[in-house]
């Protein structure tokens, strides 16, 4: 961590007063390195991960150097309405004690109101490329006195196809302006913009954290065949205590498909991606913040604008295309001093990609068994009993005592069980059949099914000893052992499978004959 203090940086007294009021004393690495260079007038590319304080870096530098005038002096472009709004709110806090005026413009909101605000005079214009170009065509936005051009989340700008708009806007501004780009990654498109529109001696500041992923986020993964993934997702949602979750997909199509499927199974879920109107996206985000939506299905681009502290889980339904995007995704949980959990669903063929992400992000992933029907049952019964306790605490059950008294005593247990069954069914979205099909593929192991489980007093150590002693194999030949209620799964090396089947089948384990077979693929 940097030892320098904000008051040691060349910022104005008004900006320093605001930063102190915001509770910041020590700058992040990107802030420490970028602020002095921006104030010197250098064109700059700042490369750092989400959550490192990039907005404060360029915002504090700009607002320290600008003085109120009758022209737009700085423009900040952002890929989405949500991000533009966040930058605007941050600028209001940073510039609280200055006499500078700023506004935020984006599509999906009343353009006439934005026009009136700009005509009254603004020093800093923050907005999305499409709306800025619209206002330029209307002769409302004029950039001939521009001093600073800032492009935030530049990589996402390119991913969303804004490169032509950006180049059009850049072609209208004075060549003397200072250009600042901030981005999490450095695709070729950004290098092209830099070579074409930035001074030849521009500075590239790259901040690479040793520990890229949040230490407050525990990271897990499940291995499932592609056709199993949706059911695995439902099993995760139904077997874990989740306050709210963001579920990530790579494409807009995947977001639409998964959200539609989950809605069809009565999960409280909405979609968020770039093809959804701004008004709908803002309404969805507001409802998510207010706990009215439990699960949000999103693309990486759309999620850049989500700033919600209560997200308890992130679920990667599909792996991201780049390692950095994984860091962005799980950074949506474990915020504001809270802990979070991240689950990733991968096919056996994607394990190598996952391990690469693990190495590059200096993370540690723990593999979990796919949640069983017993796991789901236990979680939902726990929720149900908590809800019952809440009714009892409020005394809301009194109106029903007469119904219970009028019921024959011989029926009461059955009626109670039936009511629990009805309530349990209403809490389950997916129609789970059994656990037998939810077996994991392995390249060098076979997955064996054994028709004995916890009810037969089978445990891992006893089953391991039985297989080794009966088949005369080594403990190292046995992999993961999963004990379910009525059956078990054992991963074994392929070269001992036949030996186990021929020597252990129909032998007695805990005084009961067992049947062993290779678990079938779906």
Automatic annotation (TrEMBL):
Q: Which PROSITE patterns match?
A: DEAD_ATP_HELICASE, HELICASE_ATP_BIND_1, HELICASE_CTER, Q_MOTIF
Nuclease as a keyword?
A: no
* Stored CDD domains: DEADc, RRM_DbpA, SF2_C_DEAD
InterPro entries, from UniProt? Answer: DbpA/CsdA_RNA-bd_dom (IPR005580), DEAD/DEAH_box_helicase_dom (IPR011545), DEAD/DEAH_RhlB (IPR044742), DEAD_box_RNA_helicase (IPR050079), Helicase_ATP-bd (IPR014001), Helicase_C-like (IPR001650), Nucleotide-bd_a/b_plait_sf (IPR012677), P-loop_NTPase (IPR027417)
Domain Helicase C-terminal residue range list: 216-392
Which molecular function term from Gene Ontology is one that the record holds? nucleic acid binding
Q: Which residues form a coiled coil?
A: none
Keyword annotations for this protein, in alphabetical order, are: ATP-binding, Helicase, Hydrolase, Nucleotide-binding
Pfam families to which the protein is assigned, alphabetical: DbpA, DEAD, Helicase_C
Q: What is this protein called?
A: DEAD-box ATP-dependent RNA helicase CshA
Say which domain of life the source belongs to: Bacteria
Q: Name one GO cellular component term.
A: cytosol
- Family to which the UniProt record says this protein belongs: Belongs to the DEAD box helicase family.
List where the motif Q motif lies.
4-32
Domain (DEAD-box RNA helicase Q): residue spans on this chain:
4-32
Report if keyword DNA damage is assigned: no
Domain Helicase ATP-binding, first and last residues per copy = 35-204
């Amino acid at each position: 961590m940097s030892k320098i203090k904000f008051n040691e940086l060349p910022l104005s007294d008004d900006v320093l007063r605001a930063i102190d009021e915001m509770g910041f004393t020590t700058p992040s690495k990107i802030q420490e390195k970028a602020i002095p260079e921006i104030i010197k007038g250098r064109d700059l590319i700042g490369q750092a991960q989400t959550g490192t304080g990039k907005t404060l870096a360029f915002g504090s530098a700009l607002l320290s150097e600008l003085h109120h005038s009758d022209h737009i002096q700085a423009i900040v472009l952002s890929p989405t309405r949500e991000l533009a709004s966040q930058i605007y709110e941050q600028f209001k806090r940073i510039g609280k004690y200055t006499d500078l005026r700023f506004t935020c413009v984006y599509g999906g909101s009343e353009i006439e109101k934005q026009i009136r605000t700009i005509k009254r005079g603004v020093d800093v214009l923050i907005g999305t490329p499409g709306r800025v170009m619209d206002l330029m065509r209307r002769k409302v936005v004029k950039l001939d006195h521009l001093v600073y051009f800032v492009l935030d989340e530049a990589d996402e700008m390119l991913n969303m196809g804004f490169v032509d708009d950006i180049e059009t806007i850049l072609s209208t501004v004075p060549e003397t302006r200072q250009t600042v780009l901030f981005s999490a990654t450095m695709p070729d498109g950004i290098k092209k913009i830099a070579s074409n529109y930035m001074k030849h001696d521009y500075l590239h500041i790259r901040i690479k954290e040793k520990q890229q992923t949040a230490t407050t986020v525990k990271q897990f993964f499940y291995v499932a065949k592609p056709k199993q993934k949706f059911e695995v997702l439902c099993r995760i949602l139904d077997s874990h205590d989740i306050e709210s979750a963001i579920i990530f997909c790579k494409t807009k199509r995947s977001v639409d498909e998964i959200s539609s499927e989950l809605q069809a199974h009565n999960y409280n879920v909405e979609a968020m991606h770039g093809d959804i109107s701004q008004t709908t996206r803002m309404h969805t985000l507001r409802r998510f913040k207010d706990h009215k939506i439990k699960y949000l299905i999103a693309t990486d681009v759309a999620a850049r604008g989500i700033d919600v502290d209560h997200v308890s889980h992130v679920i990667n339904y599909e792996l991201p295309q780049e390692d950095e995007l994984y860091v962005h995704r799980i950074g949506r949980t474990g915020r504001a001093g809270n802990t979070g959990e991240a689950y990733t669903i991968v096919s056996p063929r994607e394990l190598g990609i996952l391990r690469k992400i693990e190495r590059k992000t200096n993370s540690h992933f723990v593999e979990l068994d796919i949640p069983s029907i017993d796991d789901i049952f236990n979680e939902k019964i726990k929720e149900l009993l908590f809800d019952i306790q809440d009714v009892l605490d409020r005394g809301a059950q009194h109106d029903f005592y007469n119904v219970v008294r009028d019921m024959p005593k011989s029926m009461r247990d059955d009626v109670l069980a039936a009511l629990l069954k009805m309530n349990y069914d209403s809490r389950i979205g997916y129609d789970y059949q059994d656990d037998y099909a939810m077996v994991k593929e392995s390249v060098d192991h076979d997955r064996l099914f054994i028709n004995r489980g916890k009810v037969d007093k089978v445990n891992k150590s006893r089953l391991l000893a039985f297989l080794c002693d009966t088949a005369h194999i080594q403990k190292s030949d046995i992999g993961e052992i999963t004990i379910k209620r009525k059956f078990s799964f054992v991963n074994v090396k392929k070269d001992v499978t036949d030996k186990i089947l021929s020597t252990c089948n129909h032998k007695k384990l805990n005084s009961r004959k067992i049947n062993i077979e290779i678990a079938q693929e779906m």
